[in-house]
Amino acid sequence: MFDIATLIQDYSSNPVNNYEMKDFDISYQEGNPVCGDGINVFLKIENNKIKEFSFTGDTSMITTTAVSLLAEEIQGIDLQEILAWDLDFMREELGMQVSSRRNRAVLLGLLATRNAIHKYINDGKIDDFDDLGLDD
């Protein structure tokens, strides 16, 4: 049986790719003013796909879990595909619905990643939580 509490405990204690990449192509810092979380993502990109992903920051357990799950899925994925990922994608990764007050925590890493990609491809866009399907 799936136990979300165990998942969150495991990932928050042993986050995936939680380090500052030294030879990144692009980085981006994002914050969640509701809870005070802050994250930096680092991307290495090759042939318009994520070659390597890492993150650092002061994040809650749910944010750390969500970013760790993102880290497991993102490598080898085309940048345009990632720009289509949203709250529904992250909920599917978590395997559960989260309360509306936790949606921002679940989305923070993805938001930072999408904005890093926008910066990298220089398309002039900056996403916010609403662009990822949050309608609070």
Automatic annotation (TrEMBL):
Protein species of origin: Candidatus Vampirococcus lugosii
All copies of domain NIF system FeS cluster assembly NifU N-terminal, residue ranges: 8-121
Task: Supply the Pfam families for this chain.
Answer: NifU_N
The superkingdom listed in its UniProt entry is Bacteria
Name listed for the protein in its UniProt record: Fe-S cluster protein
Q: Which InterPro entries match?
A: NIF_FeS_clus_asmbl_NifU_N
SUPFAM superfamilies in alphabetical order: SufE/NifU
Coiled coil residues, start to end: none
What are the leading ranks of the lineage? Bacteria, Candidatus Absconditibacteriota, Vampirococcus
